[in-house]
Design goal:
Structural class: alpha+beta
Protein name: Glycogen debranching enzyme
Helix content: 10-25%
Number of strands: 31
CATH topology of the domain at 4-157: Immunoglobulin-like
Distance between the termini: 74 Å
Pfam families: Alpha-amylase, CBM_48, ISOA1-3_C
Largest sheet: 8 strands, parallel, barrel
Radius of gyration: 28 Å
CATH superfamily of the domain at 4-157: Immunoglobulins
Organism: Vecturithrix granuli
Shape: elongated
CATH class of the domain at 4-157: Mainly Beta
GO molecular function: amylo-alpha-1,6-glucosidase activity; isoamylase activity
Low-confidence stretches: none
Family: Belongs to the glycosyl hydrolase 13 family.
Number of helices: 13
Strand order of the largest sheet: 14-15-18-19-20-21-22-23
Mean pLDDT: 95
Length: 724
């Protein structure tokens, strides 16, 4: 027998209605119908607009306030389907699979013209996207141009949450054991050389899981997969040869919906199938012990500044969702035109709801937050000492096992690397690690002492937080690739159409005598050695290493350090490089295996430079060309250290030793080797100065050194020895 509260109480043009439930927000399938709930503090009225999927004209528009006939048709009464500031109603007997929906909002103030400031931007002629939509139609097929006259470009859809996860759950791998691979969903398989059935899709990535496993990474960090509009800045490149678009996706439209254009099933216009395709990918990655992180953009949206489009939040409650100046313009701490008002209680709840949804419904293991310092600004833009949003994320019970990673800076000049409010939970992209390693690698002076801090997990930055707070990276999506870091002195972004004004200028790169590709064998060999040096140092560092997709095979972007707008080979992974640069790939894979084999490289807490287990050796000791005498002088380009494996974390003590020496000088140096306890002997794992394949061994098959007392290290080279 049905409960009485599932029965309709009113009707409107043959649609049966009743008061809805104000929470959860969005469209929720309930017994007999769909519950719609949307917040607006300042709107005076709201209208629900229902479409059949793909149709230009709505099927019905139902106001939330007005005279409605009662279900028995004997009379009508005034009904206000609203509770507090939430418009909510349940509509019965809807076809969930063919339904698309949106809202119209009415409110105070005159209609604001595009390009003009204004606190309220209510326009009842505009159909608005539900911020809580679990699926969004309109960009179902990547790059397909929409009908310009279509009155409602981005449409909310319903999703069945009935996916069979079997026994899957988030992996909860200790963060210090992760090797993160930052990748673009489309870019990994879009290149013709990928050989997959559905290039550029979630499905295609499943075909590349064996490659990820063989590489050795155990976490993929997906660049934005929340629904965005790749056509938002659609224009020709300067030479008119191709279109440019928002390829990277750092311009969110919906915080709850996966990007439909990344799905092989997207062209079927079925939101549930898109969601299930992504969930299937995550389930398969988990089966292979690979965690999944999402790069989330909570600091701004795709609605832009005063001249941008009205899609959702701007028309629902502009004054609540965005930071505004005193004259009604958009604050721009994001550098993209607007800034989300993250610490407004309603906005804060929406962002938390989003994370909870992805953690629970998609089994996401962690989140990286773009321009995360914005999440710590108050409603006037001032940095908060105790930001409520960051604190709630840290202590939220649903997110308790998720990794939280901050990009601890923003476009407004707030730089908090080492000082981001952490609550014992947050890790950070360590921008100082990137810059220090790049400068030390190319031979800048004054970097030896700084480099030692980075190798130890940056205790100068994260003294109370431990080494695992440091996400170490040399390159990421934003900036040069590893190949370009050693191939270009200057950025070459002309193809972006902004006259080379975009992108960072301080790349700490060096071309070694020729700008770009070269046939000079000496320069080519030096560049390859420097790529290996960089990867070796990354894998030797305490903290959590992150690799940019394609760096392991020497991918180039032709000197473009900001190719956000290119859906082409500048961004696509070129699978032919697995053969043409197999030497570098083999080196990177063996470095990863080596890191996994040695717990002393993966400490959660900071090394102390003390012997606290009675081994006769400190957990880490620093050396120079002479044992026990590191050169911290300004002109030093050498550095060496010894790790005692008996100080590895509890339960994983290994009675071996790791010695690493870095010579970034342009001259060779002979390094004295620390003495080992008998009967241990030094064996060579890496010497980047040697020709391949002798430059690196398979871990476990290191070659015994003939000379146990010293090692001559060539210019710009790294050596790694194992004592066992």
């Amino acid at each position: 027998m049905q409960r009485i509260d599932v029965y309709p109480t009113h009707h409107y043009k043959n649609f049966l209605l009743r008061h809805g439930r104000p929470y959860p927000f969005g469209a929720t399938i309930v017994p007999g119908g769909v519950n719609f709930a949307i917040f607006s503090q300042h709107a005076t009225n709201c209208t629900l607009v229902l479409f059949e999927k793909g149709n230009e004209s709505p099927v019905i528009e139902i106001p939330f306030r007005g005279m409605f006939p009662k279900i028995d048709d004997r009379d009508s009464d005034w009904v206000d389907f609203r509770l507090g500031n939430v418009f909510t109603m349940t509509v019965f007997d809807l076809d969930y699979e063919t339904l698309e929906y949106g809202f119209r909002m009415e409110g105070p103030g005159p209609k604001v013209k595009p390009g003009q400031p204004g606190f309220h931007r209510f326009d009842p002629e505009q159909i608005l996207l539900d911020p809580y939509a679990k699926s969004i139609g309109g960009r179902d097929v990547w790059g397909e141009l929409p009908e310009k006259q279509h009155p409602y470009q981005h449409r909310g859809r319903l999703v069945y949450e009935d996916f069979d996860w079997e026994s899957d759950r988030p992996l909860e791998t200790p963060i210090e054991d992760l090797i993160i691979y930052e990748m673009h969903v489309r870019g990994l398989t879009r290149h013709p050389s990928s050989g997959v059935k559905h290039p550029g899709t979630y499905t295609a990535i499943r075909e590349k899981i064996p490659y990820l496993k063989d590489l050795g990474v155990n976490c993929v960090e997906l660049m934005p997969i929340f629904e965005f509009d790749e056509l938002e800045n659609f224009y020709h490149r300067p030479d008119e040869s191709e279109f440019l678009m928002n390829y990277w996706g750092y311009s969110t439209i919906g915080f709850f919906a996966p990007k439909a254009g990344y799905a092989a099933t997207g062209r079927l216009h079925d939101g549930t199938m898109v969601a299930d395709e992504l969930k299937t990918l995550i389930k398969e990655l988990h089966k292979h012990d690979i965690e999944v992180f999402l790069d989330v953009v909570f600091n701004h949206t795709g609605e832009g500044n005063e001249k941008g489009p009205t899609i959702s939040l701007r028309g629902i409650d502009n004054a609540t969702y965005y930071m505004l100046t005193k004259d009604g313009r958009y604050e721009n701490y994001s550098g993209t035109g607007n800034t989300l008002n993250c610490n407004h209680p309603v906005v804060r709840n929406m962002l938390l709801d989003s994370l909870r949804y992805w953690a629970s419904e998609y089994h996401i293991d962690g989140f990286r937050f773009d321009l995360a310092t914005i999440l710590g600004r108050d409603q006037q833009g001032a940095p908060l000492a105790n930001p409520p949003l960051l604190e709630q994320m840290a202590f939220d019970p649903i997110l308790a096992k998720c990794k939280l990673i901050a990009e601890a800076w923003d476009a407004g000049g707030l730089y908090q690397v080492g000082a981001f409010p952490a609550y014992g939970r947050w890790a950070e992209w360590n921008g100082k690690y990137r810059d220090t390693l790049r400068r030390f690698l190319k031979g800048d002076s004054g970097q030896a002492g700084e480099m030692a801090q980075r190798i130890m997990g940056s205790p100068d930055l994260y003294a109370s937080r431990g080494a695992s707070a440091s996400i170490n990276f040399i390159t990421c999506h934003d900036g040069f690739t590893l190949n370009d870091l050693v191939s270009y002195n200057e950025k070459h972004n002309e193809a972006n159409g902004e006259h080379n004004r975009d992108g960072a200028n301080d790349n700490y790169s060096w071309n070694y005598g020729v700008e770009g590709p070269t046939t000079d064998p000496t320069i080519k060999a030096l560049r390859q050695r420097q790529r290996k040096n960089a990867m070796a140092m990354l894998m030797l560092s305490q903290g959590v290493p992150m690799i940019l997709m394609g760096d392991e095979v020497g991918q180039s972007r032709q000197g473009n350090n900001n190719p956000y707008c290119h859906d082409n080979e500048l961004n696509w992974f070129n699978w032919t490089l697995l053969n043409t640069n197999a030497e570098l790939l083999r080196f990177v894979k063996n470095c990863i295996v080596f890191r996994k084999a040695h717990p002393a490289l993966r400490n959660r807490e900071h090394l102390t430079r003390r012997d606290y287990v009675g081994s006769g050796y400190a957990d880490i000791s620093w050396h120079g060309v002479q044992v026990g005498q590191p050169d911290w002088s300004y002109h030093s380009h050498t550095l060496a250290f010894l790790l005692c494996g008996r100080h590895a974390r509890k339960g994983e003590h290994i009675d071996n030793y790791i010695y690493a020496a870095f010579n970034m000088h342009w001259e060779a140096h002979t390094f004295e080797l620390p003495a080992l306890p008998e009967p241990l002997r030094w064996r060579r794992f890496v010497d980047t100065s040697l020709p391949a394949p002798a430059e690196i061994c398979e871990p476990g098959s290191e070659s015994l050194l003939a000379d146990q007392e010293q090692y001559e290290l060539s210019d710009r080279s790294v050596v790694i020895l194992v004592g066992n």
